[in-house]
Every structure is written in structure tokens, then in C-alpha cells.
């Protein structure tokens, strides 16, 4: 069976449900979600919102993704190793993994053949095993049979169409940060 994000129970579309009159009444009765951009939100407990793990061969696509994620309205704080760290400094990558809320792994043929990418993937999995919603595998040009065994328990986003994939990644990060801020706000009350 396919475990792509489109069939994931955690990828329900809030945009379509929020426009429905029946759910808007329910939403008005529930406490509103905390603002993830608020300076006192749990979002600011880490240096980065998203750490991007990728092969250098895929840098152009990753730069487009980072530009999209760092744009308005969310203005996510992204760690991109080639931009934000000295070349091949393992401690900087480990720090970025530990100091990020979410991790996007762009799983491509180049990613699968690169030992450094495998190392990055294992760092992410060691930080938060089974962290669905925090760990966001994105498959591009990889057959299902080649998908890393270590990630098989996680839903992935298939990058068939770049624009919709970027939006799915953004929405997944937003959902995680909202839940983080929500649980943080309710635990302090």
C-alpha cells in the first residue's frame, strides 16, 4: 500500500474544512490555536523551524524550497547546511538537527547514494524516532521499493508537482508548530 502524504490521516486539509459553515461554528466554540509567530510561543525554543537534509546534487531544488518556506506569511527559519554551516562540519549539522523543530529529507537517487545523506538521516532519526509530523521525508524520482527502510514507518510527501509538494511541506510544519504551541500554552495554564 502507498503511504504517501495524500493518504495520511495527518494530512487533512484545514483549508477546505475551515470554509464549511458547520465546522466554522465548531471552531468558534473551541479555543483558537496559538499564534506560531508570537514571540512567546514554543516555536522560539529552538534555533530553526526546519532543517533540510539533502544531497548537494539537489541544491537548486532545495534552494527553491527554502526560499518558499522562508517567505511570508510564516517566514520559517530554515537550516541549509551549504548556506548556514562550514563545509562538512559534522558538529554543526548535529547542532542544527537538535535545534530544529522539523526535518525535511529530500529523498532522491542522489540522496540514496550519498553516505553523508545517510548520516544526516540517521542523525534525524536518532533525535526523534517515529516522529511523524516532525520528520518529513519527501520522495522525488525514487521508486517505492528504493525508499529507505529506516523511513518506512513515516508518511512521505511525493514530489510529483513542486508547488503542491512545497505547500504540503509548509502545511505539515505549520501543523506541527501549532500543536507544539497549543500543548505548550495549555500546559502553562
Automatic annotation (TrEMBL):
GO terms for molecular function: Toll-like receptor 2 binding; Toll-like receptor 4 binding. Residues 1-24 have a biased composition (Low complexity). PROSITE patterns: TIR. The keyword Transferase does not apply. InterPro entries: TIR_dom, Tol-interleuk_rcpt_adapt_Tirap, Toll_tir_struct_dom_sf. Residues 46-180 form the TIR domain. Residues 25-41 have a biased composition (Polar residues). Signal peptide: none annotated. Residues 1-41 are annotated as: Disordered. GO terms for cellular component: cytoplasm; plasma membrane. It comes from the Eukaryota. Keywords: Receptor. GO terms for biological process: positive regulation of canonical NF-kappaB signal transduction; positive regulation of chemokine (C-X-C motif) ligand 2 production; positive regulation of tumor necrosis factor production; toll-like receptor 4 signaling pathway. Gene3D superfamilies: Toll/interleukin-1 receptor homology (TIR) domain. This is Toll/interleukin-1 receptor domain-containing adapter protein. It comes from Buceros rhinoceros silvestris.
Amino acid at each position: 500500500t502507498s503511504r504517501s502524504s495524500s493518504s495520511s490521516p495527518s494530512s487533512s486539509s484545514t483549508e477546505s474544512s475551515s470554509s464549511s459553515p458547520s465546522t466554522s461554528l465548531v471552531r468558534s466554540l473551541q479555543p483558537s490555536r496559538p499564534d506560531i509567530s508570537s514571540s512567546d510561543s514554543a516555536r522560539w525554543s529552538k534555533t530553526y523551524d526546519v532543517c533540510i537534509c539533502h544531497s548537494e546534487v539537489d541544491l537548486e531544488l532545495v534552494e527553491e524550497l527554502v526560499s518558499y518556506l522562508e517567505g511570508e506569511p510564516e517566514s520559517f527559519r530554515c537550516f541549509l547546511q551549504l548556506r548556514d554551516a562550514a563545509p562538512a562540519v559534522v558538529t554543526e549539522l548535529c547542532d542544527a538537527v537538535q535545534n530544529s523543530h522539523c526535518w525535511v529529507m529530500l529523498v532522491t537517487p542522489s540522496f540514496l547514494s550519498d553516505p553523508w545523506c545517510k548520516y544526516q538521516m540517521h542523525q534525524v532519526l536518532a533525535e526523534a524516532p517515529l516522529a511523524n509530523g516532525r520528520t518529513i521525508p519527501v520522495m522525488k524520482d525514487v521508486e517505492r521499493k528504493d525508499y529507505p527502510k529506516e523511513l518506512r514507518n513515516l508518511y512521505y510527501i511525493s514530489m510529483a508537482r513542486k508547488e503542491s509538494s512545497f505547500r504540503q511541506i509548509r502545511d505539515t510544519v505549520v501543523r506541527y508548530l501549532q500543536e507544539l504551541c497549543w500543548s505548550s500554552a495549555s500546559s502553562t495554564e
